[in-house]
Design brief:
This protein is of the alpha/beta class. The chain is built from twelve helices and nine strands. The strands form two sheets. The chain has a seven-stranded parallel β-sheet, sandwiched between helices. Strand 4, helix 3 and strand 5 form a beta-alpha-beta unit. Helix 1 crosses helix 7. The chain is globular and about 55 Å long. It starts with a strand and ends in a 6-residue tail after the last helix. 44% of the residues are buried. The model has no long low-confidence stretch (mean pLDDT 93).
Length: 281
């Protein structure tokens, strides 16, 4: 049995569907949704990673775990306790959704230090493990849904700075392979899209998918910071703005891992926009 945490998120939702479509027995869990949209053959239960004891019935009889690293709640997690409970329940393999920032921002409190502590816990758990380190997600463009729908406008800082953002469905496919196939134990995979795209180009791709113009508005760093502080802790905001505005060469590198693992190139942002354009109409 596979346990998928963060099962209602951008990666977890796709992973649950991919595993279920392959005929796997899946238990999906997340913190906040009592009746999520999951396939009929998937068991869903609410549980909170912040409370490892709540996970005991979730992990009971499980073979493998997809562990998302907590997002905005990562600083509240006790990863070693989570993994101890998982191991006690029978889990022998954990696939961790980590972050590229563990390697590219090693001295950042929000990305490097925190992410590294979770990775260390996984590597020292005594279970087989695989670590996925994606960069930015294409689905971050959902932040524009309200403004595109209401005003056909999209605002972001650093309009012409490119990053190789990745489709969450590609992350989910890699996770599916790591969970179901051999040969991935002890591996760390860096996951990116196929090309650098800028915020301006991503807004243009949404406009093309809509068949209508979308006005791009370049924010100042301070404007973007004020907006992000509404839903992200300050250390995360500062590191995120540094990545968006002053990416390192490693953060702009196109990784070969998705193509090597899946046998095809990663999906483009334009493809993501076409598949999800209904949200922006």
């Amino acid at each position: 049995m596979f346990v998928v945490t963060g099962a209602t998120g951008n990666v977890g939702r796709s992973l649950v569907r991919a595993l279920a479509a392959a005929g796997a027995q899946v238990t999906a869990t997340s913190r906040g949704i009592s009746e999520p949209d999951v396939p009929e053959n998937v068991h869903y239960t609410q549980a909170d990673l912040v409370d490892p004891e709540s996970l005991r019935p979730v992990f009971d009889g499980a073979d493998a775990l997809f562990l998302q690293s907590g997002g905005a709640s990562a600083h509240l997690l006790s990863p070693r306790d989570i993994l101890d409970v998982a191991k006690a329940g029978g889990v022998g393999l954990v696939v961790l959704l980590s972050s590229q920032g563990v390697a590219t921002r090693p001295h950042s409190d929000s990305h490097g230090d925190l992410g590294r502590s979770i990775e260390d816990a996984v590597q020292e758990s005594g279970m087989e493990w695989t670590i996925l380190r994606p960069g930015g997600f294409n689905s971050n463009a959902y932040a524009w849904v309200e403004s595109v729908r209401a005003r056909r406008a999209a605002a972001a800082p650093f309009a012409d700075t490119g990053l190789p953002t990745i489709d969450p469905d590609d992350i989910a496919e890699v996770a599916t392979a790591a969970l179901r196939e051999g040969g991935h134990a002890g591996q760390i995979y860096e996951l990116t899209g196929p090309a650098l795209t800028t915020p301006r180009q991503r807004a243009e791709a949404i406009a093309d998918a809509l068949g209508e113009p979308v006005r791009f508005i370049e924010q100042t760093r301070d404007e973007a910071r004020a907006q992000m502080l509404r839903f992200m802790p300050e250390p995360v905001v500062e590191t995120t703005l540094s990545i968006l505005g002053e990416p390192t060469p490693a953060e702009q590198r196109i990784s070969p891992d998705v193509e090597r693992l899946l046998g095809r190139a990663p999906r483009t942002f334009a493809d993501w926009a076409l598949r999800h354009i209904a949200a922006f109409r």
